[in-house]
Specification:
Elements lengths: L4 E2 L1 E2 L8 E10 L5 E9 L23 E8 L5 E6 L5 E6 L7 E2 L8 E4 L3 E8 L9 E10 L5 E5 L17 E3 L3
Antiparallel strand pairs: 1-3, 2-12, 3-4, 4-10, 5-6, 5-11, 6-7, 7-8, 9-10, 11-12, 11-13
């Protein structure tokens, strides 16, 4: 795995009880992309979806969810991947910014979630066949829901204005496929 990268809260949605949110990203020998998010803080304040069957599910971004947006450096198309602590996931293909959305076939990403009073770790793997070819631009982010129903948005980089993980300015990590 890579060195942990810090995800910052959007200025309009801070959470005082969350001390840090980090993500690591690394290619596996088979070309799959291994991802791991680590939240640290007073996790009694964190609303976590209940565990369920490992399955595709829409609307995960409405609750605590870890996300990856992946594009190539030279095309408007991109993929969105959502991973819930419940074990559910979703994957979408877009032809351009928020346009042409379609489900993307994704093998079980093997979500593993571990939680203690002060730390939640979520790991997932995106199979190589689900990744676009070439140099990748990644937007690593997370939606964090408070037990009171408040939502905070964390990303490597936030574009100006309201939270928007689809905006290409948030695709701040470049990664070359092996």
């Amino acid at each position: 795995m890579s060195a942990p990268l810090n995800l910052a809260p959007h200025p309009n949605t801070p959470l005082a009880w969350l001390a840090s949110l980090e993500v690591t990203v690394a290619f596996q020998p088979d070309g799959a992309l291994a991802l791991a998010w680590r939240l640290q803080g007073d996790l009694a304040r964190l609303r976590v979806p209940l565990p369920g069957p490992l399955r595709h599910s829409d609307g995960l971004w409405r609750h605590t969810c870890c996300e990856a947006f992946i594009a190539t450096a030279d095309a408007p198309a991109y993929h969105e991947f959502n991973f819930s602590p419940s074990g559910a996931w979703a994957a979408y293909r877009f032809t351009a910014y928020r346009e042409g959305s379609a489900n993307l076939a994704l093998a079980d990403p093997g979500i593993v979630c571990r939680m203690t009073a002060n730390q939640l770790t979520l790991e997932a793997v995106i199979a190589a066949v689900a990744l676009p070819p070439g140099l990748l631009r990644l937007g690593m982010c997370a939606v964090v829901e408070d037990v009171d129903g408040g939502i905070a948005y964390f990303a490597l980089c936030h574009p100006p204005g309201r939270p928007d993980f689809h905006h290409f300015d948030s695709f701040a990590l470049e990664l070359a496929r092996p």
